């Protein structure tokens, strides 16, 4: 490309490849050809997801001919099933498998019978080696599924690698894009859309390398982690009990979700829940894992009262808890 | 990408439609964490794109003009051949110049300034046609006959009169109508699930296409034009891609009977109660890193691009990588989108005579923000001498133009006939 002696000298100190940039029209055109080719190939695999039960919605990408879908953790929260809509309007039912909230990633399996040639899908790439300046393509059902148009194409570059395999790009995202795919120029999935910041360069994606590390756990249906910053970013009108969850405790009928922290003055605190308690059952439904806990809570509205059965040491307790509103629990973070 | 990138840091927001919050965690802007070297690399990369594509827009740039009002550039304009007058005219965004009355100054790519007048409008498209005295400037109308359809992901460029690529983006969504009236409408409320082997109709809108065809609540739609449906979304997709007035054969189940009926589809605008719900949180996100145009909806035909622009960039021509005209920028829609009126639509439009501004006004105000009506059509026009005095006091007012340009604009303004406050 355009390596000069000066650039090489710099590279010796700064081990960075120069960001790829076209030098003339013919290079621009061959890049354009790559982009249009990728879009044509992967657009049919870019799906919209929604749940009429939890009210959640977002995007996702099919990554196997058998109908395995990758999406964002915060999109599946509170759902055990979601409706999958392909860009041509075809619908299918997806079963939520596992989620890693910390990395904001999740897996869904399409339950409908597979079409003869399999579901439209995209390949998996690598995000670990992506660097500032690498060119990428984002797709997603911005603003939700819209029958009059295909999911909008956005082209940009990697701005920076973040913590825990997150990366940010200048492919601009908006509500509804969550869970949608980021592709490299080969059309392989390298990221899952997660969040945005004020600037046009603040579009954040969970890197695919993190998903690959979690793959088996996600496939098995395990749900773990915490929506780091994003836990504050969810729907402010969502119902919450006002705790930070700990590990699931797996000991037969005493199993449940342990409480790591209780927000002072929050619903759990008012109901007398304490750190160290194990939530065993809500409204006569056992909560053996985080996913079930979220699903049970998502079925209610803030202000409704639920009955929680707890295990505290050797004791079993029952408490009535009035659900709060997420936005009221975190008053200091108001924009 | 835009020439100057925005570097503001702020909180981050989740993207799930329902999970969008007004609460955010303060995290650093990703650009802020980069080393000096990395930032320079990104900047060089962007410059690479702009300089590599610059030769392509040379022709389009020559037909691009800046439009000034009261010393500031309010938008761009594209020189075209008007079909009705057979004269070169300037096409621009009506709602941006509407605020500026007739006291418009146009500056060419060669730095020549002259006065222009509103000749007429195409209100549906929010386009205005400006006349000027052809002896004032020799402008070459753009060749609009060369346009080819652009596949998704195609690179497109925005020209500015300086001969630079002002912004660069890709085709995000192919040309479509944003008008409800162009969308076919059946007139039913449908169940989300197709648990009953089809789409159950919950309610039939009185007088709708469905009612006229004899469909009733409780009927279960099995197929449209022999195609079995997987659910509500497929039904909606199918309907919205059809034109109002087109006919479909609906196969449905009533009780145990399998029936068929022919439905002549209506238009979505016939039912004013069906509207997308405005989303408070979407509104916040739409403005993150972007300033949307006042008029940004309801266009009969637009290409969507991820190209970042300012509302004052409207009116500029867009080219593909062959320099062919892809269309004219009409609006910044939101953080993720810019709307472009495709060349074929403009070509079509220019064969028709424009409407008078007073006739088109009502249509425009319906689509604007609630305060659009209050923006005076003729804001208090200063007399040119006051204007010059004010401009001299604020020499940097144009932002992107130099003193020389300001002087030229002043000259044009001084030559304009004095107007009275009560002029229409």
Question: Major sheet of chain B: size, sense and barrel closure?
Answer: 6 strands, antiparallel, barrel
Greatest interface (CB-CB under 8 A), with counts per chain: A-B, 96 and 88 residues
> Segments of chain B where pLDDT lies below 50 for 5+ residues?
4-14, 16-26, 272-278, 373-385, 388-400, 419-424
Note the total helix count of chain B: 10
The class by helix and strand makeup of chain B works out as alpha+beta
Radius of gyration of chain A: 22 Å
**Rg from Cα of chain B:** 25 Å
> Main beta sheet of chain A: strand number and arrangement?
6 strands, antiparallel, barrel
What is the distance, rounded to the nearest whole angstrom, between the alpha carbons of the first and last residues of chain A? Answer: 45 Å
Compute the average pLDDT of chain A. Answer: 86
Widest sheet, order of strands of chain A: 1-2-3-6-5-4
Strand content of the residues of chain A, in percent? 25-35%
- Choose one word for the global shape of chain A: elongated
Distance between the termini of chain B: 41 Å
Tell me about this structure.
The complex is a heterodimer of chains A (335) and B (424). Chain A has seven helices and 22 strands. Chain A is an alpha+beta fold and 335 residues long. The model of chain A is unreliable at 1-16, 229-233 and 331-335 (pLDDT under 50). Chain B is an alpha+beta fold and 424 residues long. Chain B is 21% helix and 29% strand. Chain B has helices at 36-53, 58-62, 94-98, 209-212, 232-240, 280-286, 343-350, 357-367, 384-393, 403-415, and strands at residues 11-14, 25-26, 64-69, 72-81, 88-93, 104-107, 113-122, 127-131, 155-159, 165-176, 184-185, 188-190, 199-204, 220-224, 227-228, 247-254, 257-264, 266-267, 302-305, 317-319, 325-334, 337-342. Chain B has a six-stranded antiparallel barrel with strand order 3-4-5-8-7-6. Chain B has a six-stranded antiparallel β-barrel with strand order 9-10-19-22-21-20. Chain B is globular, with a radius of gyration of 25 Å. Chains A and B meet through α2, β9 and β12 of A and β1, α1, β10, α5 and α6 of B.
């Amino acid at each position: 490309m355009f390596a000069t002696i000066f650039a090489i000298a710099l590279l010796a100190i700064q081990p960075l490849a120069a960001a790829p940039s076209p030098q003339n029209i013919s290079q621009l055109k061959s890049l354009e050809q790559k982009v249009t080719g990728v879009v044509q190939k992967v657009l049919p695999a870019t799906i919209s997801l929604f749940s009429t039960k939890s009210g959640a919605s977002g995007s996702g990408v099919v990554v196997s001919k058998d109908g395995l879908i990758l999406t964002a953790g915060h999109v599946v929260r509170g759902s055990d099933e979601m409706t999958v809509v392909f860009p041509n309007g075809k619908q299918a039912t997806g079963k939520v498998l596992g989620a890693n909230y910390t990395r904001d990633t999740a897996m869904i399996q399409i339950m409908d019978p597979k079409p003869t040639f399999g579901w439209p899908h995209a390949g998996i790439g690598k995000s670990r080696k992506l660097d500032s300046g690498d060119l990428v393509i984002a797709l997603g059902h911005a603003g939700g599924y819209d029958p009059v148009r295909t999911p909008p194409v956005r082209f940009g570059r990697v701005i920076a690698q973040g913590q825990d395999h997150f990366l940010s790009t200048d492919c601009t995202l908006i509500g509804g894009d969550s869970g949608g795919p980021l592709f490299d120029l080969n059309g392989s999935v390298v990221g899952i859309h997660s969040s945005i910041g004020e600037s046009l360069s603040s579009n954040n994606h969970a890197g695919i390398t993190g998903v690959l590390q979690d793959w088996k756990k996600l496939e098995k249906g395990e749900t773990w982690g915490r929506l780091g910053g994003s836990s504050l970013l969810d729907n402010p009108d969502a119902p919450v009990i006002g705790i930070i969850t700990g590990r699931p405790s797996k000991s037969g009928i005493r199993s449940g979700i342990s409480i790591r922290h209780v927000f002072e003055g929050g619903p759990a605190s008012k109901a007398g829940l304490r750190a160290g308690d194990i939530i065993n059952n809500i409204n006569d439904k056992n909560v053996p894992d985080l996913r079930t806990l979220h699903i049970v809570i998502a079925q209610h509205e803030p202000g409704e009262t639920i009955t929680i059965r707890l295990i505290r040491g050797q004791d079993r307790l029952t408490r009535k808890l009035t659900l709060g509103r997420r936005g009221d629990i975190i008053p200091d973070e108001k924009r | 990408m835009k020439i100057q990138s925005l570097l503001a840091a702020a909180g981050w927001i989740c993207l799930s439609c329902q999970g969008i919050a007004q609460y955010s965690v303060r995290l650093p802007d990703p650009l802020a964490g980069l080393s000096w070297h990395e930032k320079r690399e990104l900047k060089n990369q962007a410059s690479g794109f702009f300089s590599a594509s610059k030769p392509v827009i040379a022709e389009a740039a020559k037909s691009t003009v800046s439009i000034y009002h009261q010393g500031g550039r309010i938008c761009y304009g594209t020189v075209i051949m008007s079909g009705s007058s057979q004269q070169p005219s300037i096409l621009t965004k009506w709602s941006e110049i509407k605020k500026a009355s007739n006291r418009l100054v146009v500056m060419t790519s060669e730095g020549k300034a002259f006065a222009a007048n509103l000749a007429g409008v195409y209100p549906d498209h929010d386009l205005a046609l400006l006349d000027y005295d052809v002896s004032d400037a020799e402008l070459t109308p753009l060749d609009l006959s060369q346009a080819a359809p652009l596949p998704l992901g195609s690179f497109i460029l925005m020209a500015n009169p300086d001969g630079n690529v002002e912004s660069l983006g890709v085709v995000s969504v192919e040309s479509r109508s944003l008008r409800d009236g162009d969308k076919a409408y059946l007139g039913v409320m449908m169940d989300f699930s197709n648990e009953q082997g089809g789409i159950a109709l919950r309610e039939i809108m009185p007088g709708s296409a469905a009612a006229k065809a004899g469909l009733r609540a409780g009927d279960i739609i099995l197929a449209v034009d022999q195609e079995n449906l997987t659910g509500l979304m497929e039904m909606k997709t199918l309907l919205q891609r059809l034109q109002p007035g087109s006919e479909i054969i609906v196969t449905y189940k009533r009780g145990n009977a399998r029936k068929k009926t022919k439905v002549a589809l209506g238009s979505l605008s016939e039912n004013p109660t069906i509207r997308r719900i405005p989303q408070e949180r979407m509104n916040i996100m739409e403005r993150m890193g972007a300033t949307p145009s006042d008029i940004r909806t309801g266009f009969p035909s637009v290409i969507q691009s991820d190209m970042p622009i300012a509302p004052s960039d409207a009116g500029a021509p867009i080219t593909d990588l062959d320099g062919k005209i892809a269309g004219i920028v009409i609006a910044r829609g939101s953080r993720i989108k810019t709307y472009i009126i495709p060349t074929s639509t403009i070509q079509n439009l220019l064969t028709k005579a424009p409407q008078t501004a007073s006739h088109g006004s009502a249509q425009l105000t319906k689509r604007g923000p609630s305060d659009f009506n209050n923006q005076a059509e003729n804001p208090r026009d200063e007399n040119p001498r006051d204007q010059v005095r004010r401009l001299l006091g604020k020499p940097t007012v144009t932002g992107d133009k130099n003193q020389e340009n300001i002087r030229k604009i002043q000259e044009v303004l001084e030559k304009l006939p004095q107007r009275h406050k009560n002029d229409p």
